[in-house]
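Predict structure. Input: Methionine import ATP-binding protein MetN, 353 residues.
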Amino acid sequence: MSSEIAKASQPVSQDMVVLENVTKEFKTGKKTFAAVDDVSLTIKRGEIFAIIGYSGAGKSTLVRLINGLETTTSGTLTVDGRTISGQRESALREARHNIGMIFQQFNLMNSRTVASNVEFPLKVAGWDKAKRRARVQEMLEFVGLADKAKSYPDQLSGGQKQRVGIARALATSPSLLLADESTSALDPETTSEVLSLLKKVNAELGITVVVITHEMDVVSSIADRVAVMEKGRVVELGNVYDVFSAPQTEVAQRFVATTVKQAPSKDEAAELKARHRGYLVNIEITEGNQGIGKVLSYLGNRGVQFNIVQGGLETLQGKSYGNLTLELIGEVTSVDAVIAELGTVTRVKEVRS
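Output follows.
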């Protein structure tokens, strides 16, 4: 096999990362464990793509496969039209020049200044001194840290350290940036600043960004599309709004529940029924069921009153979604008619304890 990474035959220009039936197995004693299990996935050039899952889902192993730090057990993986799976380490080192990486714990060298940290990958890549210095200055200005060039990592806040990490990852002009739990060690305000910077990287530099996270807020604030992982497999995949406004799997529903109140659980339903004498229903709110307000606005004409007793709404990609639990008060026939009419514009479910 050539020392250079083989070009994929007839690469699709709009596909940045393509995984075809990729599996990564690890051996523990006599047992074999699939951290990534038969994953097929395409990440488009220029998008911000999120991979979300709880601890042990396989998302960090997946990102290590993409940047060649782990080798695939089976399947094919290409990045920017070049085959990554099955290549020698010398070829993978070359490929990594096109892949930037930022980490949860920053991974900065404490004995080096901010400028020296950003310059390091340029030295490895063989850039001459003058070009290195110009590029370091450019990157530090881009991330808003030009005044910190001579500082050391222990003199910086967590957010500043992560911005140095982003500058370093961008130094060699990669076409792909991988962010592995890059905001998990940061407070909410600093997380927002770092995510805004990643959006700037994507919008102004045209770099494809892949975000690995277990935080729903990260996905909702930055990503175009999302893959939900569980036990090494991708269990849901699609546009962020579509996946989280109507989650199909239990794991996706758990993530959505961290940001917006879901339909009442059995215990919650019992408590609600004890406090409210009316008929309780849960309705789904999505961008497509605009008729809900119209139906509710005419309830008085039908002799039915309603109260919102539980629920919540969230906005993703400029569109709203969520759940509301309503108490309907009135004659049985009138309430039944209202429920039937609501059922024509949204999903309606009786709240049962």
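The longest strand covers residues 15-28.
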